[in-house]
Every structure is written in C-alpha cells, then in structure tokens.
Amino acid sequence: MSAPDEHALNRREGEMEEMEEEEDEGVEMEDEGADGEAEKKVYVPGIEPLQPGEELEMDRSAYRMYHECQTGAPCLSFDVVKDGDGDGRQQFPLSMLLCAGTQAETALKNRLLVMRMHNLHGTEKENEEEESSDEESDDEDEEEDKKPQLELAMMPHYGGINRVRVTQCGELSLAAVWSDKGQVEIFDLRPQLEAIHSSAAMAAFVQQQKEATPLFSFSGHMSEGFAIDWSPKVPGRLVSGDCRKNIHVWEPREGGASWQIDQRPFSSHSKSVEDLQWSPTEGTVFASCSVDQSIRIWDIRAPPNSMLSANEAHSSDINVISWNKSEPFLLSGGDDGLLKVWDLRQFKTGRPVASFKQHCGPITSVEWSPMDSSVFAASGADDVISQWDLSVESCDVGARVEGVKDLPPQLLFLHQGQSEIKELHWHPQLPGVMISTALSGFNVFRTISV
C-alpha cells in the first residue's frame, strides 16, 4: 500500500494546524466499471493478497468526505466531545471536537489532547480545468479556502493513556482516563475547550503549560485496565474494569467534582475485563466482556455477581462490545475475528442472532450507529474498517460482480489505509461521519454507503 503523503500534519503545540486531505486506500464494495484501458477489479481484503509491486488506489468517488491527520505520538483511544452547533449537521464544511490520549515512547512524553477539526469539506469532484489563467488562479484560491484546519490543546500526562471516555455533567465536560499507571482519573476539559476556540485563551493556555491535574483519581484497581464507560442515563455515573477481573461503579457526589466508589468490586469474571457498556435505557444496568470469553449483564442494585451471562460467547478473548441505543441488541468482537449480535431478550440461550467473519484478525473496536439502529461498524487488526447494515437481506441484493458474490449482503463497505487501527466512533451529531485512530494517525470520513 502507498504510504501517506509527506505533507501530513506537522504538530506544533498549541498552534493552529492544517489537516491535509490525503490520498488513501478505501475499497468500495461495488464494481467500478471499465472506463480505463485495463479492466478494473474489485479488491476484497483478506481473500486475495496483493501481488509484489501492486498497490491499492483510493476511489475518491466512494467517499462523501475523507481527511487524515496526525498528532505526533499515536493515540490508542479517543472520544467525541459534543459541541453546541446542533445535531444532524450534513452541510459542508463540517466541524468536530475530539478528546484523545497518547501512547508515547516514554511516560513523560504523553499528552491528553483536545482537538477542534473544522473547515472539513467533502470530496465532491473538482470542476474541469478552465483554460483561463484567471480562472485557474481562482481555483487555487478556492483550494486554499478549503484546506481543513485543526486546533490542538495538549496537557502533559504522566503515563500512557489506555482509554478515554467523555461526558457532559452539568456545565462540566469531563474526561475519564484509564492510564497504564493503574489509575483512573477524571479531568475537567474546560481550559482546553476554551483554548481551541480562542487564540487569546490558547496563548494563555500554552503559557501556563503544566502536567494535567485530575479533578479526581482512583487507585483502587491495583492494576491497569482498559474498560470504562459513562452512564448515558445518570450524569456522572461511571463504571471501570481492570486486567485483574474487577469492576467498580462510581457514584457522583453533589457538586460533580468527586465520586463515591464502592471498594467491593463486581467480580463474576475470572480474567481481565476488556470493555464495559451501560444500558442506554436502564440507569442501573451495564454489560461487560472479558478474556474469559464471557459477556455478562449486571445490575448495580444486586452486587457483586452478574445477573445474566453468555459463558462461551466467543472462542477466544472478547475485546469489545457496543449496546444498541434503541434496540435490545449487543454487539461483540473478539480475537477470533468474529462479530456477533446478541438479542438481550434471548441472551440466556447463549446463542447470537447473527455472526459475521469478515475480518482476518482480532476485532479492535465495534460501535452501533447512533443514527440508524441497524447499522454498525467494526475495526480489526487486519487494518480494515467494515460497515454493516443488518436490515439488508439476501433478496434485497441484485446481480453482484465477480469477487463479491460470496460476501454477506449486510456488508456495506470496507475502508483501508491505516495501520494498526485501535478505535473507531461514529460522530453523534454528524450523520454517517466516522473517526478512527491508528498507529498511523486519525481518519475522518463518510462513505457513500451510510
């Protein structure tokens, strides 16, 4: 595969930066036609390896928007910070706020980042070149105006950041951070959010650059972990799980700047807890998945054991889960490369209602679309992001080109171009827009399929 262009983001702390639109590799799951001299072929990752000297070429027409950026040290995890610009925004240029944490070479070099990406234009086809030099000049000016922009406010953070999750609690924008120091910390993001919206605030922020000081921290896990989630129903309620199998629930105290944490853990798992998800409809219920190959459903009113479980949900470690916002479905992804959909009304049977094997490596992230309850996305260690729609049935699909006949009809799109993809999220305010982080940086895109 071709490497990213060298004019990708060069990071400078606290200053406005440009995100360059990059040529990258995406794979559209449709026949491209035969307009060129050579016959075009549909490439399906994992089925037929590239031959020596072969390169994938991005088909820009398969994307409504595509941007790429880098932030220095890679970010293992990030989350979307909701902004006040409204929901359902589709008009270009778009903007977004993200919070991310780095995994740098040394503990001292890590940062907690807040980013504002804006002036994000779509990938509409450029106009035909005009003969007039004046018009060519106008085109160049237009291209300059369409360059995506990035403001970045960074706080030094001692220790690599395993996972970041953001919530709004009253006037506070809070980030919960699992670090490899074995601590879970809560940070107030207001100084960084002010800095990325004002050059004067940014100058002051850079001037007083110091290590991030948490509002609150918890060292009771006794080991590091990755699993963490804010409740969507009870502001400030948090759940965190560690590599020693223990889960703790955090209850917010009045004022929103401190938490009461029950020292007695929820402890039905026998191995590392990998991911946690609160129920979107019940404030006391959450789900967990583990290296012990089980998925469990818990009610915080009945500690310390889970109330439901699927004990052999996958044949190996279960890495990630996602709880559908409007349907009683749970999505899971494991080291076995499988994606499974669980109907919680039939959870006791221990059998998923759907299972897909498209990725040829462990699943690293899964998430239901916040806009469409039948759509979800997944990323894998095979450097592929897949988009799916469960509402599509075999009878809905017409004649299919050679090479994709054996693919499940629910598979909408395969996106490539990043190396070691770690996490993805749909943007809750921008329909169809997806953000992913990898060793090679961030992708921000919307495909023609969603």
Strand content: 35-45%
Structural class: mainly beta
Count of separate DSSP helical elements: 3
Shape: globular
* CA-atom Rg in angstroms: 22 Å
The strand order across the widest sheet is 1-7-6-5-4
* Average pLDDT metric: 88
Helix content estimate: under 10%
The parts where pLDDT drops under 50 for at least 5 residues are 1-18, 20-34, 126-132
Terminal residue distance: 25 Å
- Give the strand tally: 30
The major pleated sheet works out as: 5 strands, antiparallel
Structure characterization notes:
By secondary structure, the protein is mainly β. It has 3 helices and 30 strands. It has helices at 133-145, 190-195, 199-207; strands at residues 16-18, 26-27, 63-69, 75-81, 94-102, 111-120, 149-156, 161-169, 172-179, 184-188, 216-218, 227-230, 238-241, 247-252, 259-261, 273-278, 285-290, 295-299, 308-310, 318-323, 329-334, 339-343, 354-356, 363-368, 375-380, 385-389, 411-415, 421-426, 434-438, 441-447. The strands form 7 sheets. Strands 1-7-6-5-4 form a 5-stranded antiparallel β-sheet. A 5-stranded antiparallel β-sheet has the order 2-27-26-25-24, with no helix packed on it. Residues 1-18, 20-34 and 126-132 have low confidence and may be disordered.
